[in-house]
Every structure is written in structure tokens, then in C-alpha cells.
Amino acid sequence: MATDPVDDINVGLQELAELEAQYTIFVGSSPEDVSYATTFWNSLALQPPIESRLVSADIGQRLKVAKDPSIKTAPRPSAPQNDAIFSEQRAEEDRQKYKDMAKRRDQIMVLLKKQREERVKREMISRPFKPKQCHQSNRHGPDVSPQELDEDIQHVRSLQ
């Protein structure tokens, strides 16, 4: 069977078109650019997800070593005993916490009392040197009767 050369060319062109569809061809680029681009595209190859890998660094792959059956461990106390012990410990911790809080409060109260006494002492020392306060009536000037005040208001309105 003789093959037609035109058919061979068509088959070759189809294979070339399929090849070009699968690969990127850098026509007219320098070899350095081609190597950079190839390195870039090769670095973008996606890695399979961790779940699909057979061995993971995160997961311990080996089973734990079995314990010697001849060694017996002490029996654990029953749950009600544990609860009672834990509640007693918790109550004792709470009592201690409240005692500490009361002690701290007492220390603060002593400090505040001491500061107040010092403040009063300083006030007593500085009292003779403070200026005397004026009475309220002297601060506002002479008393004016309401009738005189109304006359003054009328006079000001007439000036406007």
C-alpha cells in the first residue's frame, strides 16, 4: 500500500497542532528568557493534596509499643471519691483566694487611711497661710433694688 504524500503532510500537521496545544512555544525569544519561562512554568506544577499522600510528616506512622502485660498499674479510685476530693480542693482554693483578697483589701484600706492622715496633716499645716475667703455678699457688689434694676434695663433699651 502506497501512502499519499498529502495525507502524510496532513497527519504531520495534525500532530504538530496537537503538540502546540499541549506546550507553550517561545518563538522569537532569547534562550535566557525561554529558560526563565520554563523554570517558572515548571515551578507551578501543582502538588497533590496532603490527604492523598501515602505518608505524611504530621501523622505518626508507627503504632505505639505494647506495654508489658506483667506490670500492673494501681487501680484508679472511683469517680465519686475523685469528685469529693476535687470539690474539697476547689473549695479550699476558693477560701484561700478570698482570704488573699481580704488581706489585699485590708492593705489598701490601711494605705488609704495613712494617705488621708497625711493629707489632713498637710492641710492643718498650710491653713494659717491660706488667704481668707470673702463672703458671698461682698463678691457681687452692692445690693440693688429690683425697681432700680428695672429702670436701668429700660434706660438701656431706650439707647438701642
TrEMBL record:
InterPro entries documented for this protein: HOATZ-like
Pfam families according to UniProt: HOATZ-like
GO biological process: cilium assembly
Lineage top rank: taxon: Eukaryota
Composition bias type Basic and acidic residues, residue spans: 89-102
Region (Disordered): 66-102, 117-160
Family classification: Belongs to the HOATZ family.
Protein name: Cilia- and flagella-associated protein HOATZ
Species annotation: Alosa alosa (allis shad)
